[in-house]
Amino acid sequence: MPYREGPIDVAYAQGGEDLRLAHFRGRPAVLALVRISEITSEMYIDQLIEAHRRAAGETRFVVLSIAPNEAPFLGEYVESRELPFQIGLAEWSVAEGTSDLGLVPVVPTTYLVDEDGAIVELIVGAVKADDLVRAIDRRGWI
């Protein structure tokens, strides 16, 4: 298992605010790690938008760039897209593999996190919105 068992916590910056995943416990979440400068992540963000449209409600979507060098461009990127969610910048420990997520196997990677903050499923690579929505639905989060 690449990540820590039990509740996980990751710090990130979003819209100039410092946040932690732990602040949002009580509601399941889709945590997607991307690099906005890579085409695979860009295409996956389109799939996340569609999945969010279909699964919004009970499930929170947290999308984080794990490339610290993208910090200067993140605000501009978010402003240039019509996103139903914001994209934050994960703390350095995520990119280094020393956060509660452990070593991220590939980017994009998506974690389904239950209302207690524990990872219940790991989805490696970019998947279609249909597959992500099915995974969310299997958990009863729609």
Number of strands: 7
Instruction: Examine the coordinates and then state which fold CATH places here, giving the name of the CATH topology.
Output: Glutaredoxin
Order of helices and strands: EEEHEHEHEEH
CATH superfamily: Glutaredoxin
CATH level-two architecture: 3-Layer(aba) Sandwich
Helix run count: 4
User: Which CATH first-tier class would you pick?
Assistant: Alpha Beta
Q: Going across the major beta sheet, what is the strand order? A: 2-1-5-4-3-6-7
Helix content: 25-40%
Global outline: globular
Structural class, by secondary structure, is alpha/beta
Unreliable spans are: none
Radius of gyration: 14 Å
Tell me, rounded to a whole number, the average pLDDT: 93
Q: Total domains, how many?
A: 1
The end-to-end span amounts to 26 Å
Tell me about the biggest sheet?
Answer: 7 strands, mixed
What is the strand content? Answer: 15-25%
Defining key terms:
single chain; 142 residues; alpha/beta; Glutaredoxin; 7-stranded mixed beta sheet; 30% helix
